[in-house]
RNA sequence: GUGGGUGUAGCUCAGUUGGUCAGAGCGCCUGGUUGUGGCCCAGGAGGUCGUGGGUUCAAAUCCCAUCACUCACCCCA
């Protein structure tokens, strides 16, 4: 048997209805907020991600699906969407017409990581990106939108964490302060932290090992190192969230693994998904457009982890199948032909109906209708053909009524639409 | 990439120290109702025991390898 490749999966009927529901709600909300859909390719030049995400990030270093094309140039299955959106924004000259643009895109991303709960090698994201607005109002609006999205879906157990990572002005200073703080406590740190103290000192601050936790008591906080502009920006964001009653938690240890983030970053976290606690994440990336060859353009965006969101809403445990309104049970060849005509008519007019194609016994067809969880069963056999009346059975109440064969589909459709 | 756990019927799982160990429940099909579902009863179909080697008279069971699933580290959506 040929099986799925590792870390990939099928979203099956029964679950896919939930995905569709999430997706359509996301579209409505995003479009209400002025975001327009942009559909992007799944593969891009490797260089786009190397430059955009950062050459020393885990994603670029070891998680990308990269293949040479026929001429040996590197091309990569996108590990995230933001770099592609930025590329498209630059390539189509939006900066020239109107630099303020809001885009959203929904689709698969690919990262070659070891799969585990909530982590797949092909996973789906809903991305929203807003260009050209430096004002903290953009940050507030983005986070407000995300908040509405999650509350609208009634997602259980989510908390939004917010932080500011500063800018090229203040972040390096903080980084230095942090490294020097950590460096004279090396002997008290776990081996992992000793290794990452230099490369990613923020991780040390966030380490769960008790010894490390103790060692980093009183570590410098980014919040104390923000330059005046960043500080003011962050303040404005927080006030904006308060004004709109968006709940959040300021989390000075919130780090993000992509190099392009500046100032505001945020992550929607849950405790229900094991180690993979981020359901959505994002932030401001004021430097990225320029890094990728465009004009200096402020921008901010987020990604929602579709798979994780669906999991939180019970995708794997529940069945979201929508049952048909009607099942047609036919007995005998003549009846079956007529029934098939009805079936086509019902389907054409948008009514979900099913029938048995194989000429099984009535009992077997009733079982099938029950399995479908059909609301009603329309029965057509020799008796009905003779007296010109079909039987319509309500599967919940067990009530049956007769419906004249003449003009039957109109009448049955009307009955079903009444409920 | 590293470590732990697990792979037996469509699903959830039993299978004791290698020797009627190829099983159960659910689901599916048929019948009990020559035309009426869910409950009940009876019967039936369905498995190269993840895969490939090895040990043995004999392997689902022991050994090796490999693949996959899963949880965690790491990182993130």
From TrEMBL:
- First-listed, main subcellular location of the protein, grouped into a coarse class: cytoplasm
User: Pfam family example for this protein?
Assistant: tRNA-synt_His
Top EC category: ligase
Keywords attached to this Swiss-Prot or TrEMBL record, sorted alphabetically, are: Aminoacyl-tRNA synthetase, ATP-binding, Cytoplasm, Ligase, Nucleotide-binding, Protein biosynthesis
Which CDD domains does the annotation name?
A: HisRS-like_core, HisRS_anticodon
Sites where the protein binds L-histidine: 80-82, 111, 125, 129, 256, 260-261
Which transformation does this protein catalyse, written as a reaction?
tRNA(His) + L-histidine + ATP = L-histidyl-tRNA(His) + AMP + diphosphate + H(+)
Localization (cell): Cytoplasm
Annotated family: Belongs to the class-II aminoacyl-tRNA synthetase family.
> Subunit composition?
Homodimer.
**What PANTHER family is this protein classified in?**
HISTIDINE--TRNA LIGASE, MITOCHONDRIAL-RELATED, HISTIDYL-TRNA SYNTHETASE
Entry protein name: Histidine--tRNA ligase
Organism, per UniProt? Desulfatibacillum alkenivorans DSM 16219
Gene it is expressed from? hisS
């Amino acid at each position: 048997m040929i099986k799925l490749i590792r870390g990939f999966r099928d979203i099956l009927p029964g679950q896919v209805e939930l995905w569709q529901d999430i997706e359509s709600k996301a579209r409505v909300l995003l479009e209400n907020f002025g975001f327009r859909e942009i559909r992007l390719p799944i593969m891009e030049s490797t260089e786009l991600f190397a430059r955009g995400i950062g050459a020393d990030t885990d994603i670029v270093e070891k998680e990308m699906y990269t293949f040479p094309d026929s001429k040996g140039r590197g091309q990569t299955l996108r590990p995230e969407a933001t770099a592609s959106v930025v590329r498209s924004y630059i390539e189509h000259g939006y900066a020239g017409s109107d630099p303020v643009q809001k885009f959203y895109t929904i689709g698969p991303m690919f990262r070659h990581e070891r799969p585990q709960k909530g982590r797949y090698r092909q996973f789906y994201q809903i991305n929203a990106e807003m260009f050209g607005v430096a004002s903290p109002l953009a940050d507030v609006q983005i986070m407000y939108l995300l908040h509405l999205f999650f509350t609208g879906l009634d997602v259980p157990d989510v908390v939004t964490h917010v932080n500011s990572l500063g800018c090229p002005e203040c972040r390096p200073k903080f980084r230095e302060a942090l490294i020097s703080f950590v460096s004279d406590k090396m002997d008290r740190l776990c081996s992992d932290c000793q290794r990452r103290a230099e490369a990613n000192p923020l991780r040390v601050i966030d380490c769960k090992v008790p010894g490390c936790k103790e060692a980093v008591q009183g570590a410098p906080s980014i919040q104390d190192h923000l330059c005046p502009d960043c500080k003011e920006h962050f303040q404005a964001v927080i006030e904006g969230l308060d004004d709109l009653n968006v709940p959040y938690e300021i989390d000075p240890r919130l780090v993000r693994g992509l190099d392009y983030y500046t100032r505001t970053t945020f992550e929607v976290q849950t405790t229900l998904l094991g180690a993979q606690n981020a359901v959505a994440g994002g932030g401001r990336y004021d430097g990225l457009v320029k890094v990728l060859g465009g004009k200096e353009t402020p921008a901010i965006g987020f990604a929602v982890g579709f798979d994780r969101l669906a999991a939180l809403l019970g995708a794997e445990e529940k069945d979201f199948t929508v049952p048909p309104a009607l099942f047609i049970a036919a007995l005998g060849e003549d009846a079956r032909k007529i029934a098939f005509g009805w079936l086509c008519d019902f389907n054409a007019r948008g009514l979900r109906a099913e029938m048995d194609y194989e000429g099984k016994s009535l009992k077997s067809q009733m079982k099938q209708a029950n399995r479908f969880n059909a609301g009603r069963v329309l029965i057509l056999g020799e008796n009905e053909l003779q007296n010109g009346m079909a039987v319509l059975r309500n599967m919940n109440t067990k009530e049956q009524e007769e419906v004249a064969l003449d003009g039957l589909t109109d009448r049955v459709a009307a009955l079903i639409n009444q409920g």
